[in-house]
Amino acid sequence: MSGNDTPVTLITGGGSGIGAATARQLLDCGHRVAVTGRSENRLRRFASELGSPAELLTLPGDAADHESVQSAVDTTVKELGRLDTVVANAGFATHDTLADGDPAGWREMVLTNVLGPALLIRASLAALKESRGRIVLIGSVAGVQNTPGNIYGATKWAVTGLAENIRRQVTADGVGVTLIAPGRVETPFWDTLGTLPDGHLLTGDQIADSIVWAIGRPHGVDINTVIIRPIGQPV
């Protein structure tokens, strides 16, 4: 491990939306950050927008592929010398239902939203035990409220369960686990619909505020579940 004690965070899906906002805020706080994403061009643009800081590591890869995730963790530890936090942020929705949806898109959504966080935990756990770090899982209000026929919500219910299951496994190791469950947020999540939902939406930066706050809690403090809705969202 490097002698550099500056904290290091690895964020999946970190090139846009909540992941990118979290990366920016952590860099502003003096942290070092690694971000993954499927689009190498998007990651390059993100780094360029920030001035390509030395404290930012971009790692193209698929959050639902075991070898890709393991490589991202290994490269982060090798290049930045340690790993203090992982943020399982990569995910998307097909915005359809069991009654009228296209099953062609479901497999990729389930693998990204459910298998992805599990793979990140598996790959990073040894390093997080060493640093007595934190696992942050990005869930959703859809993972604590039922929505008629919604498959995306079912994947986020799985993330809600995963957060508590892994917390019970690692709490004796000094590793914290935080589930961040946002309501409606103005991010690329809605791009496939071509329109934003009605009503007030939170921003990626507002969700990132809570993620960074949870990451910054002192050792020994375990923030478990944070549900964040815009005022006016009824469910």
Give structural notes.
It is a single chain. With 235 residues, the chain is of the alpha/beta class. The protein has a single domain, classed as NAD(P)-binding Rossmann-like Domain (Rossmann fold), CATH 3.40.50. Helices cover 40% and strands 17% of the residues. It is built from 6 helices and 9 strands. The termini are far apart. 44% of the residues are buried.
Features:
9 strands; 40% helix; 7-stranded parallel beta sheet; single chain; two-stranded parallel sheet; alpha/beta; Rossmann fold; 235 residues
Write a brief caption for the model.
With 235 residues, the protein is α/β, with parallel strands linked by helices.
What is the share of helical residues? 40-55%
Corresponding CATH superfamily: NAD(P)-binding Rossmann-like Domain
Secondary structural class: alpha/beta
What is the element string, with H for helices and E for strands? EHEHEHEHEHEEEHE
Overall morphology: globular
Helix tally equals: 6
Q: How much β-strand is present in the residues?
A: 15-25%
Number of domains as seen in the coordinates: 1
Major beta-sheet overview: 7 strands, parallel
Radius of gyration: 17 Å
Taking the alpha carbons of the first and last residues, their distance comes to 45 Å
Strand order of the largest sheet: 3-2-1-4-5-6-9
Strand elements, count: 9
CATH architect. name: 3-Layer(aba) Sandwich
Can you tell me the CATH class? Alpha Beta
CATH names the topology as Rossmann fold
Low-confidence regions? none
Instruction: Output mean pLDDT.
Output: 94
